[in-house]
Task: structure prediction
Amino acid sequence: MATHAPNFVHQTLPMSMGRPPLDNEGDAKYFTPLTEIFEGFHVTILDTIVDEVQRKVVMHCSSKAESPIGTYANEYMITLTMTEDGKLVERFDEYVDSKFTSDYIPRLREYLAKEKEGK
Result:
C-alpha cells in the first residue's frame, strides 16, 4: 500500500460483478486476508502500455497461487492512473476473469470464515 496515493481508489471490473470502489483502508481490509492465505503468489506481466501524457499504465497480467481450497489462477487487464509526479497510484482499475473470480473468491471467503470461527 506504500505505492498508493492518499486519494487512492481501486475498482474491480466489470461493474456487473457488483464490487464497490475501495479506498486505501477498504483495499487493505479486503486484500490483506487474501494475501495471507495464498502461497507462492506470482504475477506475470504479459504486456504493458505506458501513456505519460495521460499518466496511465495499462497491463495485461496473469497470476497463480496455491490456497487451502485449490489453485488460484486469474487473468487481468489493469489500468493504473498515476499521480502527476508518477510516483504513486491514484486509481487502480482491475478487470478480472469474472467467471473464475465469481466462483473462487466466495469459496475462499467461506473457508476463511470457517477458519475464523474455529479459532
Observations:
- The radius of gyration is 15 Å.
